[in-house]
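Forgive a beginner's question, but would it be possible to get any protein sequence you like and the C-alpha cells describing how it folds?
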Amino acid sequence: MTTSTDDNCLFCQIVAGDIPSTTLYSDDAVVAFRDVAPVAPTHIVIVPRLHIVDAAAVESEHGPLLVAMVLTAQRLAVSEGIDQSGYRLVFNIGDDAGNSVPHLHLHLIGGREMAWPPG
C-alpha cells in the first residue's frame, strides 16, 4: 500500500518532525537518521518521505525512490568512514525478519566486522 503519509506511522512522524531524531540527511525524497537501538557503531535508517509499507509493497514506479535510498546510503557510508571497510544494507519484511515499523526503510549498518551468515 502506498499513501503520501500515515499519521499513525512512527517513521512518517519522524519525517514530519513530530518526533525528534538525529537526522543526518534529508531531501525531497528521503530522510536518514540514527537508529535508536543500534546493532553496530554505525546504524542509520533511511526512509522515503512517501509512506510505503515495506519492500514487498514496492512497485516499478518506486524505482527512482529506491535508487535515492541506496545513493543516500552510499554517501552516508563515506561520511561515516565505513565505505572502504564495508557495510551492510538491509530491508526487513515482516515480523519474522524483525520489521517493527511498517514503513519502507533501509538499514545502513557498519563500523565493525559482520558475521556471515547473519544471526
